[in-house]
Amino acid sequence: MREIVLDTETTGLDPFQGDKIVEIGCVELINHMPTGRTYQRYLNPDKVMSEEVIAVHGLTNDFLADKPRFHEIADEFLAFVGNDAKLVIHNAAFDMKFLNAELEKCGRPLLSYDRVVDTLIIARQKFPGSRVNLNELCKRFNVDDSARTVHGALLDSELLADVYLELIGGREPGLVLDAAQKQVSTVTVPSNIPQKPRQRPFREPRSFPVPPDELAAHVAFMRKISDNLWGITKEKEG
């Protein structure tokens, strides 16, 4: 099963009021495990951003000036996410409205909401009444987010991938299908954004002991089966 953990950074809150995507970041999972393949692009929004917006993601107008427009990367983006991979997004309604607005403008097929796994909804159901933004979920699951000095689509996708795997049951951090697989795109981070390697803390293997009464019931059931594969002797009748 292929899943794409996805995030965007934008110039504002509403694509129908002229706001645009300035960064897309994606992380590929196969059977809930990161493969090492990622996709990332910075985008020129063809508009001047305010200092308040720049403070959120750290992407300046000068840095984005020579980057491609969305229509120039639309086909490679669609090729990476594919036709049927689930799209794992935190607060999916926000990112999906921006992506589909951009895709519609350049005459490309829209992304179906049927593909979406919204981790915000999962977290709210799992932790009702708690704050469930990405920072709070990283703290809850001991996911290192110290490199997140500003919002960044690729970094946030990597963090969300760890959080998502914890939300659905957890796994050993750092496990990848093929460490030799490379990123789809090379990321050049703006010099004004401090960089700090992420640390993945060691976690003890999880133990799931079987209660004695359940184990005894299981053995009793196995004894009722003739020639079983477990070597448990069948109980004699009478």
Please provide a written account of the structure:
This protein is α/β, with parallel strands linked by helices. The chain has two domains: 2-197, Ribonuclease H-like superfamily/Ribonuclease H (Nucleotidyltransferase, domain 5), CATH 3.30.420; 208-238, no CATH class. The chain is built from eight helices and five strands. The chain has helices spanning 51-57, 61-64, 70-81, 92-105, 119-126, 134-140, 153-167, 212-222; strands at residues 2-10, 21-30, 33-42, 86-89, 116-118. A five-stranded mixed beta sheet has the order 3-2-1-4-5, with helices on both faces. The longest helix has 15 residues, at 153-167. The protein is elongated. Residues 177-186 and 193-198 have low confidence and may be disordered.
